[in-house]
Write a structure and sequence with these properties.
The chain is α+β, with helices and mostly antiparallel strands and 447 residues long. The chain has three domains: 7-105, Translation factors (Elongation Factor Tu (Ef-tu), domain 3, Beta Barrel), CATH 2.40.30.10; 125-137 and 150-282, no CATH class; 316-445, no CATH class. It has helices at residues 100-118, 125-130, 133-149, 156-178, 223-229, 248-258, 276-279, 298-308, 316-333, 385-391, 428-445; strands spanning 7-17, 24-29, 31-35, 39-43, 53-62, 65-67, 69-71, 74-79, 92-94, 182-188, 193-194, 200-202, 208-210, 214-217, 235-241, 264-267, 269-275, 338-344, 365-367, 369-370, 378-381, 397-401, 411-414, 424-426. The strands form six sheets. It has a six-stranded antiparallel barrel. Strands 20-21-23-24 form a four-stranded mixed beta sheet. Strand 10 (182-188) and strand 11 form a beta hairpin. The relative contact order is 0.08.
Length: 447
């Protein structure tokens, strides 16, 4: 138990060794009262799940002068057995009575004071190696805040300098994400896919756009806080584990980017955002024959998912978003090809290695249909092989066709599965009206 006269919280701002001792000196700005002999807790804001560790204040110094008790001051603390406690910049030391919000505040203040104020965000390789994903996210966020509050840093010359420093941190954060043992991503239960976070942007000329949709990674120290503050029952955090050769997280992110259409990743905060190509390069099909390029429709899926995430409550905001997403969706559907499940009657050739079938005159086959909203039924279509194989095994091949080739005679249902938010239903009337509007917009934009 901590001494009754000692109640404090502080975060490590510097570390120095002591000759012939396992103790360490740490520099910190104490909030509260710290006393020699006090037992305290230790917490690191890193991605390693840890048991709460304890240690004891061996001695205190201010400007090399020993002191027994300190209140609200910068101090050098001798930590018992500190070499074995994984102390680092931002490690928080606190007594049992300290609230979580005060622990977090001490940590964030230390990250800002050390990396932004003291080091001016000039991070060397040793700094970056020691930083956790959470440290990097906080330092990134605090730098953006610092720049927005200081006009002299917004000049073209200074912007180039701090953006270069931020780029170095971003590349290191990418490496940390890809090589982590695990990451935690916010999923949407309505689509069973990572939630796409995007904002609607309105301009003075009344034009409306959307910000590039990202997925959100929550770092391990902030999991509990996120879950406690999350009020959207459709969202949940899921663990994505890496494998031994460190390809599982990369493959997961590649699917999110190049199947689902996510533009990047946010780490804890929406202004700590990394472009998708910094993490995973896009598929390179430049030397692949056109007929062998797999069907992928990330631009279509992006808006299917954004629509699927909308609340059923018809608020003005959701109506505005739906109209915007709907227009973007049909703009992409107009250009896209889809996979139509097809099965032979015994005469149809087997699918090639990509599942595609080449039809010849006289061959018999049947397409996959669903009960439609009209008597003519709806032909099933899929944006990609991932969604195709969710519903059809490898005895089924696929025809590759645009919606325009089928809509005259049949409704089209895209990605029909148990997750309604993964697909959409298209009638001829819907298609004709949306395409007519899109054609009109294109005509007006050319004027």
């Amino acid at each position: 138990m901590a001494n009754n006269t000692s109640s404090f919280v502080c975060a490590v701002m510097g570390i120095s060794t002591i000759k012939d001792s396992d103790d360490l000196f740490v520099n910190a700005k104490v909030k509260g009262t710290i006393k020699t002999g006090t037992e305290f807790n230790i917490f690191n804001f890193n991605e390693i799940k840890q048991k709460q560790t304890k240690s004891t204040v061996v001695s205190l110094e201010i400007q090399n002068n020993p002191i027994l008790i300190v209140t609200d001051s910068n101090v050098k603390i001798r930590v018992k057995d500190g070499k074995n406690l994984n102390l680092r910049i931002g490690t928080v030391l606190f007594t049992d009575d300290i609230l979580i919000k005060d622990i977090e505040a001490a940590y964030v203040n230390a990250i800002g004071d050390y990396y932004i104020s003291e080091k001016q965000f000039t991070l060397n390789d040793e700094d970056l190696e020691k930083m956790s994903m959470t440290d990097m996210a906080e330092a990134w966020r605090l730098l953006i805040y610092f720049v927005t509050k200081n006009k002299e840093l917004q000049s073209e010359e200074n912007s180039k300098i701090w953006r270069g420093k931020l780029d170095k941190l971003a590349h290191c954060l990418c490496d940390r994400i890809l090589n982590s043992e695990e990451i935690y991503v916010v999923f949407d239960k309505r689509t069973d896919e990572p939630h796409l976070f995007s904002k609607t942007l309105e301009f003075p000329n009344k034009k409306v756009a959307i910000s590039p949709p990202d997925i959100l990674i929550i770092t391990t120290p902030y999991l509990k806080k996120y879950n406690e503050n999350n009020t959207n029952e459709n969202l949940e955090v899921r663990r994505i584990a890496n494998n031994e050769d460190k390809t599982a997280i990369r493959d997961f992110l590649g699917g999110v980017f190049y199947f689902n259409g996510a533009i990047g990743v946010e780490v804890v905060y929406d202004n700590v955002a990394i472009n998708n190509q910094m993490l995973v390069a896009p598929p390179d099909f430049k030397n692949v024959p056109k007929q062998n390029i797999p069907v992928m429709n990330p631009d279509v899926m992006r808006f299917i998912l954004l629509i699927g995430q909308l609340s059923e409550a018809e608020t003005e905001e959701s109506k505005k978003k739906f109209a915007l997403y709907y227009d973007f969706l049909f703009r992409e559907i107009k250009k896209a090809n889809f996979l139509i499940p097809v099965k032979n009657d015994g005469n149809l050739p087997k699918p090639d290695k990509d599942g595609k079938i080449t039809l010849e005159k006289g061959m018999g086959f049947r397409l996959a249909f669903s009960k439609g909203k009209s008597d003519k039924g709806a032909v099933k279509m899929f944006t990609d092989w991932k969604r195709f194989r969710m519903e059809f095994d490898d005895s089924w091949g696929a025809l590759v066709q645009p919606v325009s080739a089928m809509i005259e005679n049949h409704d089209c249902v895209i990605n029909q599965c148990k997750f309604q938010g993964l697909g959409c239903y298209i009638t001829k009337e819907m298609y004709d009206n949306a395409i007519a509007k899109e054609n009109l917009n294109e005509k007006n934009s050319d004027k």
